[in-house]
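Hi W.,

Here's what went into the run:
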Amino acid sequence: EIVMTQSPATLSVSPGERATLSCRASQSVSSNLAWYQQKDGQAPRLLIYGASTRATGIPARFSGSGSGTEFTLTISSLQSEDFAVYYCQQYYNWPPYTFGQGTKLQIK
Amino acid sequence: EVQLLESGGGLVQPGGSLRLSCEASVVTFIKNAMNWVRQAPGRGLEWVSGISVTGGATYYAESVKGRFTIFRDNSKNTLYLQMNSLRAEDTAVYYCAKGGYTSAFDIWGQGTMVTVSS
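Here's what came out:
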């Protein structure tokens, strides 16, 4: 089973600033890496797939990078609606599909 | 756009059974692999089970293998999760999600809550 590790667990950033979230895989997942956003009481929403491709309707301030075992989600110029929990997920070697434990992005 | 609507959650005693349903809004459901993902209160996301387009291939997390069964009825655009021998640790919101194999999970339902307690 591939273990996904996200850092930091909590990130405090001011609106308008940039946020950088990290995700590490215990073995290579190639570019089969997705990022999801989840707000309180809501279902997860796909933001990025293929490590760097934005899903339909996702604003350009969200960008993903990386391949192999190291991945980054960057949110430039944070908006109020961006404060949420973010999960990475690998879909390269399954079952099981595995998620990171999440990074909570909170207002500083 | 495909929308997914789960139902069937509720309160059940340990050792009991429950069947969850996930109805898709459009016919394109039949062309996609599907999954169940759960989230225990205050916890992260855990993939539970997946099924191929035809239903001929099914996959399970070790934590539910032998107790849960995933199946689908493409004529009804509906995905199911039969949960038997439920345990307290199965308490979670259960989401159905479209995707899998070489694709991320691009569409999620709103979730249905399952509580296992005496």
